[in-house]
Amino acid sequence: MQFNPLCPSSLPDALALLNPWQRNFPLVREPYAVLARQLGRSSAEVLALLTALRSGGALSRIGGVFSAHAGGAALLSAMAVPPERLQEVAAIVSAHPGVNHNYEREDRFNLWFVMTAYDAESLEQAMLGLERDTGLAALRLPMVRPYRIDLGFDLRARVAGAPVAQSDQHLAPVVADTDRALAALLEEGLPLVERPFDEWALALGCTPDRVLGKLQAWLDAGTLRRFGTIVRHHEFGFDANAMTVFNVPAELVDACGARVAREAGVTLSYRRQPAPGWPYNLYFMVHGTDRSAVQAAIARVIDNCELGGFAHQVLFSRQRFKQTGARRFRTLPADWCEAGLARTEVSYAVA
Prior knowledge:
By secondary structure, this protein is of the alpha+beta class. It has helices spanning 11-18, 31-39, 43-56, 86-95, 120-134, 180-188, 196-204, 208-221, 250-261, 291-304, 334-350; strands at 59-66, 73-79, 99-105, 111-117, 139-141, 143-149, 224-231, 242-246, 266-272, 282-286, 312-323. The strands form 2 sheets. Strands 5-2-4-3-11-8-10-9-6 form a 9-stranded antiparallel β-sheet. A hairpin with a 5-residue loop joins strand 3 (99-105) and strand 4 (111-117). The radius of gyration is 20 Å and the shape is globular.
């Protein structure tokens, strides 16, 4: 069965299965049996539906979303791409396996993407490679502090609702080196088999109880923000999304960010380091099903948080070129590493 997000008959089943399990996914040996009992279906039916949702694109994976400071490296970046080159450059950026999000937005800096990597050195090498391959400079906008990262919101609303209580992600413990292999499996996604944690345990050479205990410990500590279904919001109609950016004095930005994080409608809020030509340091995202609902939510947040006096821009997304899981703990594929080395050698020879 292929899930068609445009088919109304498919939507109720998808929502009933994915929506409630975006967080608090059952950490038991047979989690899909728990989902099946909740739906009044068999485990085989649930696994078949999840497989169809993943194949159709509505389900990215079942796995973990880590705190911004849990380990690895990530960077928000943007390029000012000439319109006639946008598709070409977007394809080059999307082809890099370290890029997990790539969007066109309404601005002179029109291509926005997130690069993730195993460490800071690998990330910078990846960025230099993209600049070399595209011939374009990229803004580097590292995160300074997260205030709210909550993409596990109710898919039945026009915009996200009130925030879910969560621990201070800025203080969450990092993933230990000995646990990075498990973290990589969380980024890859839970197998769609009857006892998925047993498969992870077999791959890691440990017991299922050890795997489940570590996952719960990460959740309790805030290292994992949530564990559950990771949906692709566009497939559920959330395609009127906007990033609003502000230039707030350094001494006020954390207080403003904390206020923004408490507002309904906000899915992402964080402080980022400014860059030459880009002075903004406070960001928040609103995901919505239509532009008017998103605009209303942004206006309410600005008013409630007294942000109207600060220079700001609203950047609606226009096209989604890529949306996939991060690669902060997974290494790059071997074939990509070899191809990247070859490109580097040619570039240096020409230089």
